[in-house]
Structures are given as C-alpha cells and as structure tokens.
C-alpha cells in the first residue's frame, strides 16, 4: 500500500469561471489531466452545489483511479479550490504521475497563492508506523 498523497490548497484562482461552478467542465479538466498523466480512470462522480445570495455554488468531484483517486472541491465565491491526489505504488511507482496531475490542475486553475503538502503513505516496510494487528 506504499503510496504518495499530494494536496494543494489554491487561493484566488484566476481560471475560467466555469471550472469553479460547472461540474461538467471541471470533470473534463480533471479527466484530461488524469489521462495525460497516464493514470487509469475507473469512474468519476461530480456534485454541483446550489449557490446562495445570487452567486453560483461550487463543485465537488472525484475521479476513482485504478491507482487510487483525485478529489477536488471548489468555492467560487472565494476563488478557492482544494485538490487531493493519492496514488498507490504497489506494482509501479506512480509518484511522478500524481505530481503531473497536481501540476496540470494547479497550472490550469491559476491560483495567486498555493499551499502544497506531500505525504508518503504505507511505509510499514521501513518501520514507519504500525497497522492494526501488526507488531511495531
């Protein structure tokens, strides 16, 4: 279950407005980023949220991958996006592909400020962490 989990919090995005409010447009953007990176899309699901005070609502979406997932949430009233890309490296090292998806989406969404985090997961073979029922 060794894998890489990347997150990005995007602030004040300067992208086309449709990518923050239109589930179909955001799905196309994310699915293209996944395909271009060479990851395997299994299914995707997108939920548009109703707006308030005359403003359009955001979108939450997920692309389920054979390698794991891409999740994205938008707040168009703020111009903010949260992005989550996790890939397992069970049979191949997919880390560069995960980074490519993040780089593509951050580039497309054009935030004025971005906060990234990188987490290696499932490192039991190196002695970092434990799982239920396994010795330390």
Report on this model:
With 136 residues, the chain is of the alpha+beta class. The chain has a single domain, classed as S-adenosylmethionine decarboxylase (4-Layer Sandwich). It contains three helices and six strands. It has helices at residues 18-21, 23-37, 95-109; strands at 3-13, 41-48, 59-65, 68-75, 80-88, 111-121. A six-stranded antiparallel β-sheet has the order 2-3-4-5-1-6, with helices on one face. Strand 3 and strand 4 form a beta hairpin. Helix 2 (23-37) packs antiparallel against helix 3 (95-109). The radius of gyration is 16 Å and the shape is globular. 29% of the residues are buried.
Following the backbone from N to C, one meets helices and strands in this order, namely EHHEEEEHE
Query: Which CATH C-level class is it?
Result: Alpha Beta
Which structural class do you get from the secondary structure elements?
A: alpha+beta
The appropriate CATH architecture is 4-Layer Sandwich
How much is the radius of gyration in Å?
Answer: 16 Å
Proportion of strand residues: 35-45%
The CATH superfamily title: S-adenosylmethionine decarboxylase
Q: How many domains make up the 3D coordinates?
A: 1
């Amino acid at each position: 279950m060794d894998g890489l989990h990347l997150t990005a919090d995007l602030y004040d995005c300067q992208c086309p407005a449709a990518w923050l409010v239109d589930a179909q447009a955001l799905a196309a953007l994310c699915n293209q980023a996944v395909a271009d990176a060479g990851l395997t899309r299994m299914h995707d699901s997108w939920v548009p949220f109703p707006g308030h005070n005359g403003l359009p609502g955001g979108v939450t979406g997920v692309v389920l991958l054979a390698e794991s997932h891409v999740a994205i949430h938008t707040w168009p009233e703020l111009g903010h996006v949260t992005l989550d890309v996790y890939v397992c490296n069970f049979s191949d090292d997919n880390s560069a592909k995960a980074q490519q998806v993040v780089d593509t989406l951050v580039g497309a969404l054009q935030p004025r400020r971005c906060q990234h985090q990188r987490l290696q997961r499932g490192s039991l073979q190196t002695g970092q962490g434990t799982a239920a029922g396994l010795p330390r």
